[in-house]
Amino acid sequence: MKNKFKLIATAAMGLESLVAKEVKDLGYDCTVDNGKVIFYGDALAICRANLWLRTADRIKVVVGEFKATTFDQLFEQTKALPWGDYLPEDAEFPVIGKSVKSQLSSVPDCQAIVKKAVVNKIKQHYNIQSDWLDEKGAVYKIEVAILKDNVQLTIDASGIGLHKRGYRADQGEAPLKETLAAALVMLTNWTPDKPFADPFCGSGTIAIEAALIGQNIAPGFNRDFVSEDWHWIGDALWERARQEVEEKANYDQPLDISGYDIDHRMISIAKENAFEAGLGELISFKQMQVSDFTTKKEYGVIVGNPPYGERLGERPEVEKMYRGMGKALKELDTWSIYILTSHEGFESFFGRKATKKRKLFNGFIKTDYYQYWGKRPPRNI
Ligand SMILES: C[S@@+](CC[C@H](N)C(=O)[O-])C[C@H]1O[C@@H](n2cnc3c(N)ncnc32)[C@H](O)[C@@H]1O
């Protein structure tokens, strides 16, 4: 087995630069493309990337890349790849696919051809005589992705998407993906010594992600990954990576993180989720409406994902609520405030122009992240 792999961390549109920063912080050089960050690493890098990347969607291992404009070329070049190095004799290997602006445009046909080519190669590699393969072993989900006739074959090393951290027992109506919640926190100037509040906490995602960041707890500490069953990574490497996670966590870091919501049912869910994450004692959740937000603390950070008023009839109520929020937060001139919404008139209802805006997608909804930077603390604070 080789000891250097080409790896991809997939990213939601607009989050590529954050994923790239995370990959670099893990110690791997990388390049950025649309929706992905490409880096090279050994098998341990696969474990680390899965465990540590807060804003990536999943980790994939690139098996091969080539140009193909006919099914013959797709079959032969797929078969020529060293599948036996990756897949054991009993591997379960479903094939998914996508094709964009390519001559091979029928995705089901491409999937079937890749499947047939890999079956052929595996039978040859392991000298299997029977007609079909058992596929009762570990899962190696193959993806054939074709863009402008360039084929890329990858194996998914994450399994369930990385946004599933394993702590969300329950959720509200419009929960944020954990990856986006982490991104929202990482885009602020928050450091763990400052107060942090989410006035629209819903199921608690932003506050929980902030606490994980604040104590440098790996987001994947609480879940499994499909590549934990891969023989060529093995238990010892995964144990080492999990050991690193324990060593790097800073459980002694005090935190001042609060979440509020107008809906008391959401507060119960948020508390439950925080306990599930092992952070129950660290985050304070209380029922409160945003117009009542007040604090004597200074130099804190607010991150909020309020209702957007997307549905007909909700707008006037949401706009009134934005006004109330603007009034309540007006005096907090040392606090930095970050609000994600798709409502284009947000600044006028909130009553202030943002210091900076950043375009982000919340699922398929185009949003802006409105950033209001607070006063800087005097040098001796
Ligand atoms: C889009 S959801 C937030 C979802 C949350 N980020 C999560 O991941 O679960 C908006 C939340 O704002 C709450 N909300 C609506 N109006 C509010 C108000 N005036 N004050 C405080 N919270 C409010 C809703 O109850 C809802 O839970």
Describe this structure in words.
- With 381 residues, this protein is an alpha/beta fold.
- Helix content is 31%, strand content 23%.
- It has helices at 16-25, 43-52, 71-79, 83-86, 107-126, 178-186, 205-214, 234-248, 264-276, 315-329, 346-350, and strands at residues 5-11, 30-33, 36-41, 56-67, 95-100, 142-147, 150-156, 196-198, 257-261, 283-287, 301-304, 336-341, 356-362, 365-372.
- A 7-stranded mixed beta sheet has the order 2-3-1-4-7-6-5. It has a 7-stranded mixed beta sheet with strand order 10-9-8-11-12-14-13, with helices on one face.
- Strand 11 (301-304), helix 10 and strand 12 (336-341) form a beta-alpha-beta unit.
- The longest helix is centred in the N-terminal third of the chain and has 20 residues, at 107-126.
- The protein is elongated.
- S-adenosylmethionine is lined by residues 171-172, 174-176, 199-200, 202-203, 205-206, 261-263, 266, 289-290, 305-307, 321.
- S-adenosylmethionine (SAM) is lined by residues 171-172, 174-176, 199-200, 202-203, 205-206, 261-263, 266, 289-290, 305-307, 321.
Q: What key attributes describe this structure?
A:
11 helices, 7-stranded mixed beta sheet, alpha/beta, 381 residues, binds S-adenosylmethionine
